[in-house]
Amino acid sequence: MKIVYRLLATGFYSGYFPIAPGSVGSAVALFIFWIVPSMRGFALLVVVVALFFIGAVCATEVEKSDGRDASIINIDEIVGMWVSLLFLPPNISWKLIIAGFFIFRAFDIFKPFPINRSQNIKRGWGVMIDDLIAGIYTNLSLRIVLFLI
């Protein structure tokens, strides 16, 4: 079972990428979003909710051997990136989706309030919640941009 926890927590081992594993996880999420066009709207919500809880369990298990919020854990970035894209218009341009990637990474790296506080939550929950909030912030930011253009 430890192999399954590690496989999922590391985004199918993409978390082992030596440079910016969080960004790699976010890129994996975008790639899946691109190649699975049916994963939009409610279907994406179902996947996000399921992976959020699965991710919390898997991250907790990986933290036992690799430390608190180990850099190899990037299922949180995958879920957060998908939250960034949740229920956006189906005709959204790829330029705006790519901008969403960079906005999400900025929120995840700089951790404005309350993202910074959410990391104090114990175990894999803190790992997942900070990226969930970063994804919500990104989603709202993209909606503002869409409203303005």
**First CA to last CA: what distance?**
48 Å
**Computed structural class:** mainly alpha
Give the beta-strand count. Answer: 0
Mean pLDDT: 94
Note the main sheet. Answer: none
Query: Which percent range fits the helix content?
Result: over 70%
User: Whole-number radius of gyration?
Assistant: 14 Å
What does this structure look like?
The chain has 149 residues and is an all-alpha fold. It has one domain. Helix content is 72%, strand content 0%. The termini are far apart.
Summarize the structure.
This protein has seven helices and no strands. With 149 residues, it is mainly α.
Please give the structural blueprint.
Blueprint: H1 2-9, H2 21-35, H3 41-66, H4 75-85, H5 94-110, H6 115-118, H7 123-148
Helix pairs in contact: 1-3, 2-4, 3-4, 3-7, 4-5, 4-7, 5-7
